[in-house]
Amino acid sequence: MRGFLTTLVAAILLGPAVSPLGAAHHKNWKPPDLNKIHKQQRKALKQQQHAMKKVMAQHGMSSDQRRRFEHEMKAERQTLRKAQESESRRMKESSKSARHIQTVS
After folding, report:
1. Would you say the pTM of this structure is higher than 0.85?
2. Using an 8 Å Cβ cutoff, are 22 and 54 in contact?
3. Phi/psi at 29 (nearest 5 deg)?
């Protein structure tokens, strides 16, 4: 039962972090929209983690399990932050190269 619960928590927590962000694939996408998208993603993650914390508080957990749970949540936040940073960097570089191509032409 404990292993199933750990697997379930990990799947729920890591699901959104592993899924593609997809913000760069919109047709009429503009760079300022990226900040809004990232803010929505962070807000959704925060709400999800808050809900998971409430659920896990209802179950008796040892200190090791609680520490592991907190560590997984922290890792998920870091994963999202790094993915957003790299996405911002890619978009900035692509807009720079697009502007460079336009000025050269």
Report:
1. no
2. no
3. -80, 140
CA distance 56 to 30: 39
- HEC letters along 36-92: HHHHHHHHHHHHHHHHHHHHHHHCCCCHHHHHHHHHHHHHHHHHHHHHHHHHHHHHH
Q: Residue holding tokens 């179950």?
A: 59
pLDDT tens digits for range 27-51? 565 666 899 999 999 999 999 999 9
What span, in angstroms and rounded, lies between the C-alpha atoms of 69 and 44?
A: 18
**Model pLDDT for residues 7-33, shown as the tens digit of each residue:** 666 677 666 655 554 545 555 656 668
- Read off the DSSP letter of residue 28: T
Closest CA to 75 of 14, 7, 9, 19: 14
